[in-house]
Write a structure and sequence with these properties.
It catalyses: 2 GTP = 3',3'-c-di-GMP + 2 diphosphate. This is diguanylate cyclase. By secondary structure, this protein is of the alpha+beta class. It is built from 13 helices and nine strands. The strands form three sheets. Strands 4-5-3-8-9 form a five-stranded mixed beta sheet, sandwiched between helices. It has a two-stranded antiparallel ribbon with strand order 1-2.
Length: 387
Amino acid sequence: MDIKTLVLALALGNLSLCAALFFFQYESKKSLSLSTWAVAKQLQAAAWFLLYLRGVLPDMLTGPLANVLLFAGMALDAGALWEAAGRTGWRRLLLPALAGAAFVYLACHFLEVEPGARAAAGFLIVSGFFLSGVAALALAWRGGSMLRRYLVVTMAALSVLVAGRGLLAAVHPEGWSWIGPGVLQGVGFGALYLMMLTNAFGYLLLSREKLQSELARLEVMDALTDVPNRRGFYQALAPWMALARRPGMPTALIILNMDQFKRVNDSYGHTVGDVVLKAMADICKKQLRDSDLMGRLGGAEFAIQLPRTTQQDAAMVAERIRAAIAEQPVRADKAMISVTASMGVTTIRADDSTVTLFKRADGALQQAMLAGANRVMEAPDVTMAEV
């Protein structure tokens, strides 16, 4: 494949990505990262088409303008990766970095710097922007997937290859006896072609991986209160159920239910009810340790797991939570809504199953509600039950 064909392949490849992105999530709002990446591919496609038409269009279009468009596309490519990483500071750096790169290249062009040095400047600028995108991917190296690590290593290697091609063009523009300038140029454009493929498939696969991760998270998390849902809480509780069969500090369980929560929904609407639930969950979290776990079982009922906590200590924690909820009215829809909660407390026993554990805690909760609500009740201690 000759150089001109490679340039055409780069142009058509980026153009096809633009078309695919146009129809991707056509009926839904795209993320800023995806939108930035789409614009990057449009700029790169335009740049490669202009370079392909060198000799047909004026040199000003197929030289300076084409390369500046390519720099802008590579810069936005990196920006999309930084946006996906949650680092928005790239927006402040984009224009200065792009202006500096354009100034250097245009200065080389208008000062009629030798072609080898001018090509070196272009290759180094492109590899620099591409390498900055690699840095964004490398931020999550420690906890990243094998796909992310593969992309970091591969894209970094391609960046180094393109930069090396640029340096060789400046130092030895005519090549060596065993490797001519045509081969060097082919290596450079081949690396750029691999850059496009790796970046395109990598970005799309990482987006899919992120979406799958979010869907997996939502399977075990309650979207409203940002605590585990029933399934997630049961999964987290399972190992502590097994540990209860061994001697040591017990694990406590609190079942919490908002008192008369239906009245809040009936009086203010479900939207305000959601605000109250989220505020109540936030109040509870502030009373818990990092090792404690709160989950939403459904409706206005929550469960709290307290590792290495006796029933007596758990009752004190529950009382502290009860008082905090009662003392902090929730502001919602221009109204201050006072809410209270009732709680049942127990500990995991060696012979417990999930059913018996929650049945015992729920029994204590029902006693608290029947006793007038806004109070904490403990389930009967095992030693007392045996007497």
